[in-house]
Amino acid sequence: MKKKMTALNWVALILGLFFLYIPIVLVIVYSFNESKLVTVWSGFSTKWYSDLFQQEGIWSATKTSLLLAVGTSTFAVILGTMAAFSLVKFKRFKGKTLFSGITYAPMVMPEIIMGSSLGLTFVALKFSTGFFTMMIAHITFTMCYVVVVIQSRLTGFDRHIEEAAMDLGADGIRTFFYITLPMILPAIISGWLLSFTLSLDDLVIATFTTGPGGTTLPIWIYSKARLGVSPNINALSTIMIGIVASIVFLVTLLNLYLAKRREEDEKNAAKEAFE
To answer: How many Cα atoms within 13 Å fall on the side-chain side of residue 181?
Structure first.
């Protein structure tokens, strides 16, 4: 039986939506402001969008952020999948508790501590800080999220399917690529997207581990915002919001289409079985 929404539920819902989306709406509105002052409305204008793409360093920072996020998420998925398999497949091995603690530690550790410790480590090892040191740092703190996502999928995985494949003559490698991998692929994709988002959004760790030629988009935005938020930043934020909203909309449509196809296939299968 469905429960009706009470007045308190409606108030909490409206306040929550206002709290989440009013700042986003204000950023979008003031990105079309004529004035250089982001808090004073002086008329509608799109000049800040054209001015944004003339800003020095924005394209280089965007390219660096995208390459860093793709490389980080790819390696994080590979290492995270291996770690998740070790924790799930091997029930008991020496040092499992320590290995598990080290794997999950970045999730609860403040980024300021991780960034400073990794920066000091690179300096002590005499590594030239830059793109690759940022990638190592990002892999370190994003891999734990991949492990959690894939481990939860492996925990509820039906082992009898793998055993059936091996009984039919498939070796371990063939079983993994033809049985296990397709079944955990949604979790792998989710882990990749999560690590991509975390890497693309990171500022603190990247600041401590960056070097010449390693300016990411968050670092570029922060360097501009330290002198005061300009309409250029609002325009950039609006573009990023539009891209994310479009991706979410397309993914939602794809999920609805797949759900509809699945429902039609089930109906057809039931109809054929009845006939």
So the answer is: 10
